[in-house]
Amino acid sequence: MTDSETINDIIRGDKEKFRLLIEKYQQMVFRTCMGFVHNKDDADDLTQEVFIQAYQALSKFKMESAFSTWLYRIAVNASLNKIRRSAGTSLFQRIESLFERDNNKVDFFSPVNTEDPESIIIKQEHSLWLKKALDSLPENQRTAIILSKYDDLPQKEIAEIMNITEGAVEALLQRAKKNLREKLMGDGRKKSKK
Amino acid sequence: MNCQLCQKNLDAYQEGRLSPDMMTQVESHLETCDSCKRIYNIQLLANRVINSEKETGVNTFLATRVLAGIENLENAGHEKESFTVRILQPALITVSLAAAVFFGIVLGNLSRPAGNTDKVPVELALINDVSLESVDILSLE
């Protein structure tokens, strides 16, 4: 059954068919959200929000582009909105979320994990270091690099999702990589000075 | 190979997308250039972090959670609708009726002729016998 057939069935009232679309695209949406928020719980909540938004707007989907492209657009917008919202939260909430973020990393200590605590801590530090660098990029550069690195999408598809030309995507990716490298190197230098 | 060319090709080198000849050139440059080697190591580390985030699995019950969320939203919509039907609609009808009666009275008062004062007709004076037989007089008796 194709996506458009499933969508038509859902619009006609077969709500349960939406489960097929969720199961097919959940990992894809989750990965994109993860690239923006870097936190499993937040990415889970965002993925849920994305699918609910998609269901509510399904009748407006004109099938001019692939369903995945449309879903990517919703995921990118929802993620950016979430980041904008959290940027406006109070200092207290930010401190609280930092602690929550640390709690989420406890899974590194799960019995399945055979790594020693030191390497786990180093891993966490590296993770935060990358997140900080990615978050410092302008929204369009961040979107392009996340779609490229986290979702392994070709420039053509990124262009379609972001509604820009392939050339613009290439320029964005180059700038993003350069800025990211500078940021990562800068932070690395600061770390080594300490 | 110079540093600029090496750094330009680092991504492709890492992903094994370069020709064998270019791969060797980048490799030998990295062995001799500390600055490029450092950039390469940082890039490697960043990609490792990205890959570990990519490997994180989505919540197993996501589909059920989404469908329950949709159901809740729709139920909330119906509740809103039933509130409108059960309470708001009768209240609006009552208010409309009261308004209709009020405006009816106002309009009725406005349409009364201006000269319609309480004049006592002449004939009424003839049958007005109050002065002839006062109730006070009768009670005194």
Would you mind describing this structure in some detail?
The complex is a heterodimer of chains A (194) and B (141). In chain A, 76% of the residues lie in helices and 0% in strands. Chain A is mostly helical and 194 residues long. Chain A folds into two domains: 1-98, RNA polymerase sigma factor, region 2, helix turn helix motif (Rna Polymerase Sigma Factor, Chain: A); 106-194, Winged helix-like DNA-binding domain superfamily/Winged helix DNA-binding domain (Arc Repressor Mutant, subunit A, Orthogonal Bundle), CATH 1.10.10. Chain A is globular. With 141 residues, chain B is an all-alpha fold. Chain B has two domains: 3-54, no CATH class; 58-115. Chain B has seven helices and no strands. Chain B is rod-shaped, with a radius of gyration of 49 Å. The mean pLDDT of chain B is 82. Chain A binds chain B through residues 15-16, 18-19, 22-23, 26-27, 30-31, 34-35, 38, 40, 43-44, 47-48, 51-52, 55-56, 123, 126-127, 130, 133, 149-150, 177, 180-181, 184-185, 188, and chain B through 11, 38-39, 42-43, 45-50, 52-54, 56-59, 62-63, 65-67, 69-70, 73.
- Count of extended strands of chain A: 0
Shape of chain B: rod-shaped
Number of domains of chain A: 2
Give the structural class of chain B.
mainly alpha
Query: What value does the Rg of chain A take, in angstroms?
Result: 19 Å
Low-pLDDT ranges of chain B: none
- In oligomeric terms, what are we looking at? heterodimer
Number of helices of chain B: 7
- Tell me the number of strands of chain B: 0
Helicity level of chain A: over 70%
Major sheet size, sense and barrel closure of chain A = none
CATH class of the largest domain in chain A: Mainly Alpha
How does the helix and strand content of chain A classify structurally?
A: mainly alpha
How many angstroms does the end-to-end distance of chain A come to?
Answer: 58 Å
Q: What is the chain-wise order of helices and strands of chain B?
A: HHHHHHH
Instruction: Give me the CATH superfamily of the largest domain in chain A.
Output: RNA polymerase sigma factor, region 2, helix turn helix motif
Report the average pLDDT across residues of chain A: 83
Mean pLDDT of chain B: 82
Beta-strand content bin of chain A: under 5%
CATH topology type of the largest domain in chain A:
Rna Polymerase Sigma Factor, Chain: A
